[in-house]
Amino acid sequence: FTQGVEELPEILDMVEAEGADLIVVQSELGLSQNIKIAQSFKDIDVMYSAHTHEITLGALLADKHGVTRTTPGGPLSGEERSRLARGAAIVVETNRDMYVGRLDLQVFTDGDVDAFRWEAIPVDNSVAEDEDMAALRRWFGQLALWLKTSANGVKEGQAKNNHGTFYDLQL
Description:
two-stranded antiparallel sheet; 6 helices; 7 strands; elongated
């Protein structure tokens, strides 16, 4: 088992040979390791980082010259656009319990990234609840209550066969 770094050159060559113009890598190696990978492989356009649960409120631009944090929600500076044009990778990470991320790319027809907008969106009460999901949660809550309290549900829960197993799986 390796961390994938040894296999990455061959994988990058393979996806480029199949016609990929834009290469996005998702890695669970953690932000510091993923930055190093993005700096080491010029063919990576975007690195979605995970594992360390760090939050990049401003996306990072990583290349052999270093790492720069972009301004959250702001336009790219001339220098940032220049680095992007020279092949810097965009590196982003969010913590799934606190933020979800949205990355919009503006891409030239040849697949080069011209600009992007990264947003780390807080997961809090400001996010409107989806009514269909709320209804589904209520339905499952009613099902769980029925399974635990109805004569049929209690009987199935005590069964020593596949019925009892399926009962356990539902709760």
